Structure formats: structure tokens, C-alpha cells
Amino acid sequence: MFENNTSQPFIKIVNGEKTLFVHGRPYVILGGEVRNSSSSTAEFMEPIWEHLKKLNANSVFLPVSWKQIEPTEGVFDFSVVDALINRARDYGLKLILLWLATWKNGYSGYAPTWVLADEKRFPRMSPLALSPFGRETLEADCRAFSQLMEHIKNIDREYSTVIMMQVENETGMLDDSRDRTDAAEKAFNSPVPEKLLKDLYDNFDNLTEHMRELLKANGMKREGTWSEVFGNGIDADEAFMAWHIASYINTVAAAGKDRYNIPMYVNAWPRFGQNRPGQYPSGGPAQTVLDIWMSAAPEIDVLAIDTYRMFKQNCSEYRHRGNPLFIPECGGWWTGDDHPDSTPQKAFYAVGEGHCMAFSPFAIDFKLYENHPLGEAYRVLNSLMPLICRYRGTKRLRGFYPSKNVKNERITLDGYIADITYRFVPTGDGGGFDTTIGTDRDYQSYGLVIQTGDREFIVAGRGLSVDINLPDQKLYNKIVEEGYFENGLWHTTRVLNGDEVGNQGLGAIVLPAEEQYSIIGQPYISVQRVRFF
Ligand code: DGJ
To answer: What are the φ and ψ backbone dihedral angles of 384, each rounded to 5 degrees?
Structure first.
């Protein structure tokens, strides 16, 4: 049914990882998401494009709202969308557009006024949120989204400026664990769809632990109502909401893809700590219900994670059953996570260890990001991109930063081991975060290793040392050079030996950290090529 050719973005599995292709080549999004209202006019965006270029971002996540493109039912205005696409092209940036429509952060503030004014046609599950059981709501959202996709196809198909779409934003129900409208109550007391049960039991061994335990605790039922299969507690409410919201979004995505088939994803407000469904949006693509989303929403290519806490843990939770790591939002200043090295550290880890498809801090248009080290991180990661794309999905690409009180860490590569010693190690408990927020020592050590040949490696990062060896043999004899890649070719800027390498040239690779002890002209993030003889 859908067209697909290499001129428009698509997703294909490479080395076991879902990989985004843009203009026929693998593409890792190194971007940023603007604040919610910034892309509401082209004028407001004007100074932001230049800023994004200076940050060396290759892409930007921009909201496009239903309220704005269909102010009157059936009357569409794409003038702002057109202007945004044109400016992105002028600056050589790719766009990921966020379709803010029926839901945004669990509520419905981006639905048009004519929708919110008519509760009979467009029923609510709470005063602030439309119900997924509103048939006319779904039809209206689908109509608007397909008009948008048709329009994008008409103006952008040859250019592929728009490379992906986010369908809605952080969906799920807040303030209650489930929709209690009449239609929802009826559905809740009906049998769980056969397709969902089949998918869950067919994949039983690979389900999240939460889902496996939930099914086991309720007697592994192969049929029954939501309470019979998932129990009498709040977990059944969440499972029920996940199925219905995911099905709704699947229908919206399918309507859009029918007009223009580019990759589409949803983003999660995840569960954290002891939060219960309803405290975080119940039925959104949280860790607890990823398997339900996979069953209900096959048109959704990626389940993305907005990660503001427990970064490493979130990265591994969302690499679930072939789902790639995709981070449209991270780096929350409201939690105190605004240290200059925080997003560079996360970018290195997401790319190096999470083999991500996308990395993007939220509020990239904040002044906080002017002259920010993220620009350096993106410059380095962009220059390594051909190697990153080549080794993504293999053991030859590893990334790291220290967890609380971890000074040394051993990682394995393809036949090699590497002992990492961190210069800065977080010591606080971080109150539920994975590092203490806000002190230098929490962020200044990060890096990645790429094994580029039999005895050849690229090491990049800050504030740590990396000692590479064979498992049974210490390797001493090596040449270490600092430099960069240009058009795929290595260029040496400094040959390192003596004090600049461990054990006077025979030991570990040393990536410096403190600015005042780095040499004038030396890059903020060191990239070193190591060849063993
Ligand atoms: C997560 C949402 O997805 C964003 O749109 C934004 O509201 C941030 N939270 C908080 O500012």
C-alpha cells in the first residue's frame, strides 16, 4: 500500500539495529528540540537557525500543531510549516516535526478550539484530555494529519528536509489510571483482543520483566477481560489504556503514511521511581507497556524516550526487542541538570553505547546552549560519523561515563579489553537520578572507543584514560596521535608520547579534562588514533 523508494527517508535493519536512512545513506540524528512555542511563527525561529548551525546540529525537532494548521474545521493553513521547511533547507538542517494534536503531555491543549468546544462530538476522558474512544476525534485527527503529510510530500519529497514525524507528544492519561467514559467502561469489560494476547505469548521470553511477571501473577490467561488477564489493580488500567491509545495513534500514523510514508515515532514520559500510572501518563509508551505498544502500533517505527532522570537505565530499557534508542528530549534544567558537560556526556553515551538513532536535548534554543560544549561534542561525533554508522550494532563501538563511586570499569571490544579509569567520579546519591546533579565531577568524564581495524582504535572524549589490551596479553608498542577526520581521512595534529600517554608512552591513552591544564589550542574533546605494533 505504501510507496517506498530511496529518495525519501526509510528505516532498515543494519548489524541488527534499526537504522534511519536519509538520501539513501545511514543517518544518526544529532539534534535538539526547541521549546514548545518557538516554532509557532517563522519570525521567532529566525535567530535559532544560526544558533543550531553553530552547535553543529544536523537536525532539529519542531512542533507543528493541529490547532494552528486547522483553525477552522476543514480549512488548512500550512504557511508556517512552509516557512519552517524553507529555512531549514537554507541552513542545511533536517527536520523532525512533532504532530501536537489530540494529546500533548497527557492533555489536549493543542486540539483546535472547534474540537474543544464540542464535547458531544469530541468526548473527554478528563476535563483536560480528549478520550481515545471519541470516534469523531480520531477521524478528525487522521484527516488533519493526512492533509499535513500530503502537503509535506508535495513540497518536500524531492528534498527530504522532513525526515521523521513524531505522532502526538507524551501520550497517556494523567490524574487517573484509566478513561471512565461509558465507551471506555464497556471496552474495559470486554475481552482483551486476541492479537494482543497472541503477540504477548508468542514473545513471552523477550517481554519486559514487568509484563512477564504481570501475566504470571494473573495465571497466564489466554483469554478474558482486562481485569481477568492483567489483574484487579492499576496495572490492568495501564495495559488497557496502552492498547487503546496505541491503537488510536497507529490509526493516525497509518493515515499519514498513506499519504507520505516516512518513519514515525512516539515519545514517552517514562515511569520513574515508585510513580503510578496516572502520576505519569497511564497508557503512554512507558517502560511498563512497551510490549503492548509494539503489538497495537505496528505503523510506529520507534518508541522513543524523553529521559530526564536515570539516563543510563532509560537507554537500556528502551533498547527492547529491536527497538532502537531514540532520545528526542533530555537534559532537564528544572531538575538542575544543566551542567555544560551534561549533554555532551549523554550524547557520547547515547551514540557510543546506546548506538542511538537520535540524540537531542530539549530547549536547545535556550541561551544556555550558546557557546556550549555540546557544539564540540557534535563536531567530534559528526567527524566520526562514517565510522559510527559502520560499527553501530557491533561490539566495535563502545561508550562510557562513570556511575556513582565507579572509578574503574572494564569493557570488552571485538577480541580486546579496555580498562577505563575515570578522572571524575560522582559520589552523591543523586536523589533518584543516576548521578548527583550539578557538580563538575558528575559530568566531566565521558568517552567512546571505536575499533577500526585489527590493531587500530579511535578513542575520543574527556577526563579519563583507556588502557587497551588483548585479554591474555599486555600491549605496549604503539603509536598514539591526536587529530581529526576530514572527508573520512585521518589528519594528525599532535603525536603523543611521554607525559601525554600513560607510563611514558607505553601505557593507557589519556584524555585530558581540566581546561586550565590543557594546552593552548588543544581541542575541548580529544580524539586519538592508536595503532599497536
Ligand atoms: C516533556 C514534553 O514532551 C515537552 O514538550 C516539554 O513540555 C517538557 N516536558 C518540559 O518542558
So the answer is: -90, 0
List pLDDT tens digits, range 481-506.
999 999 889 999 999 999 999 999 99
Cα–Cα distance for residue pair 493/514, rounded to 1 Å:
20
SS (H, E, C) 298-311: CCCCEEEEEECCCH
Report CA(40)–ligand 1 centroid distance (Å).
16
Tell me how far apart the terminal alpha carbons of the chain are, to the nearest angstrom: 55
306 lines ligand 1 (CB under 6 A): yes
| Pocket of ligand 1 contains residue 177 by CB under 6 Å | no
Between strands 59-65 and 94-104, the pairing is parallel
Which grid cell sits at 28? 544518526
Angle, helices 342-352/374-383, rounded to nearest 10 degrees: 20
> Global pTM?
0.97
pLDDT tens digits for range 321-379: 999 999 999 998 887 788 888 999 999 999 999 999 999 999 999 999 999 999 999 99
Domains annotated for the chain, with CATH where assigned, are: 10-305+317-325+355-364 (3.20.20.80), 399-532 (2.60.220.20)
- Which ligand 1 atom is nearest residue 98's CA? 5
Q: CA 434, CA 443: separation in Å to the nearest integer?
A: 11
The C-alpha cell at 396 is: 566495535
Quick one: residue 231, left, alpha or beta (phi over 0 = left, psi -120 to 50 = alpha)?
A: left
Whether 105 is in the pocket of ligand 1, judged by its Cβ within 6 Å, is yes
